Amino acid sequence: MSGEVTETPVAKYGQSSEFGVVLDFIQRMISNDTLRQAFNIPHLVMVGRQNMAKTTLINRLIGRYLLPMRRNETANTLQARTTYPIILNLRNGKRSLVEVKCDIPGIGGAVENPKDDTVETFLNQVTAHLPKEEGTPISKTPVNVTLQGPEFTTLTLVDLPGAHFANDDPRMNLVTQNLVLEYIEKNTNSIIVIVSEVGDPTGDSAINLVMQKAPDFRSRTICALTKPDKLRESDDMGKRVAMNGSSFTLDDNRFIVLRGKDGTDPKEKDWDAETTRVQEKLWFARHPQYKDIQHVCGIDRLMDTMISLLAEKMITEIPILVTQMRRRKKEVDDILEELEDSEVPESSEGKGGVAMKLKENLIRELNKLLFNNTSNTAGGERVRQLFNSFHQEVFRVDPLELRNDDEIRRQQRKLEGVAAPLGDSSENSQLLQRLLYEKYTGVQANGKPIALLSPVDRLLPLSEKLVRNVEATLRDIVQKAIEQALSKFPTLKQAVEAKVVSKIFDKKREQTTEFIRQFLEMQKKSTDIVFAPIPTPREISVWEGFPLVDHRKPHPCMTSKMTSHMKYLAKNLYPEKLLQEIDGSGSHGLMYKEHEEIKNVKRNVVRCFNVLKMNVCDTVPRCILHFFVSQLVDDLDRALEKENLVEFLEERKDIRDKRILCRKQSLALENALPHTQDVLHKLLRMKQGSPQKDRKM
């Protein structure tokens, strides 16, 4: 890159011109990985099939053979040299250097005053460190290559790996084609420079790719036709294509014919870019097919066309781009403000502060959610419905289920002589104790015996089921609070669930179940039926039917709230099936007196058990509210305070990545936006003149 400075095709466009200022802005945008990925920026992109000499063409535009290319080698049998997207940035400067950057840490570097082959060697070394598409040497990771020297003027273009079609490796074909397609589809403001051989362009698969993914290809495509020397002098195919005379057409003067080294001159291998340009002009000037259409021939004309089309695109798109940049800056700053609370500081003190704040938010949310779901307010239906369902299940427990009168009589005879005849009080309760608290053998409808738990013992499984259901409901509520408070910290969320919530709920379940078990055991110590029992529905019907002086008015006591409640309890505690079991007889051998005694025993069993039912319906929910609700939040608070959760404080990866991306975009936009006002001013002036020195567009 050292030596005598000659004017290259690129150097025609003065850096002090309006166009140079805009190009400098575009270069900053394109060379910044963050901005390039965020915005659709006008720029030049080179595409084509493998071995179409795209990189050689770029080197000719630069004026130096710097990028990796074949030197005096046959292309057909060799693998591609460009194996990753190269974002080439040319900059004017006194020092000569090449700088390579990539968004992957550790890849890249800079070399000052390099020779041409040193640049190529440097870039080839980068290839070894890039991630490759499986089964291929191709990488989709773009690499920024900045070439600076006194002979350069600001310009940026992208060189994509050549698309493979006839390759024996289907995987290679697929990867390279998809790379080109994805780039064209995403970058709709790019100027596409297709490099193709002189010939029928409809047979060029790269052209077909462009047509497939760029519906507006005619207005933003330039086709560079190479290797015209392969045609006979009498063959006018190249001329017809260049003049838009083939089936594949572009806007006028968008086909440019180029002729590089054709191997006919033994000194070609020593030609530099400038010599190649001079020889190219001489060749077209004397060729019978091209001498009269030289306005579409040669590397200079290609440069003119590329810059002219890029200028038109910039005039249209950059004002839109600037508006998008300003809007995006506000958006990312708003996002960063939203994500501020979830950022984990580096210091231990900072992490402790974040952990404490998260804990306070969680407890606050738990208080709110648990109150709404367990108090007597709207939103508390979930737990109350479980309590109501529990009441109904308890009411349905039948103390006389499958009991036979003969079995009751046998139990009674065993106790005769031990206790006085059973009365209406609890003084003689041994028979009731056996009927209520001991297992028994029932008789099914088919006459087969079946072992049954005692009526009181049947209440324990129902209570345990209620505990499990309430636990599941409260776990859902707690889980919802954890999701809301810790959704941005998955590791911390898992730690809280495993180390705090699960332990607390296990402890609460064990405490509650043990209390209920002891409470039911306590009920076995009391069979007092002296206090007023709940009347049966039949008894209430008799009361309601008692005649008054005025038959049009009901009895006052029948309209009271207490009576209404008694009716509700009577219907649930004395279902018709149970009344039939009290009245029914399991044996026809009993005398009337014995039958009445058995009925009285069964009636007392039911009445006593109804007292137990109401005790259970009242106490079990109270116990659950005490252990599982009233103390739950406080216990969780103490457990969270006790556990050291700072070590688990790690922000969710997608949020962390989002913050990093937004910060990168915000910083990049902060640096780029101050230049936009001058760029917009220069664009207005560009409409009146050419970006090229001393020429009109």
From TrEMBL:
Enumerate the Pfam families for this protein.
Answer: Dynamin_M (PF01031), Dynamin_N (PF00350), GED (PF02212)
- SUPFAM superfamilies registered for this protein in UniProt: P-loop containing nucleoside triphosphate hydrolases
Q: GO CC annotations?
A: cytoplasm; membrane; microtubule
Keywords for the protein's UniProt record, in alphabetical order: GTP-binding, Nucleotide-binding
What Gene Ontology molecular-function terms does this entry list? GTP binding; GTPase activity; microtubule binding
Q: Do you know which PROSITE patterns this protein is assigned to?
A: GED
Task: Indicate yes or no for the key word Transit peptide.
Answer: no
Instruction: Spell out the protein name for this chain.
Output: GED domain-containing protein
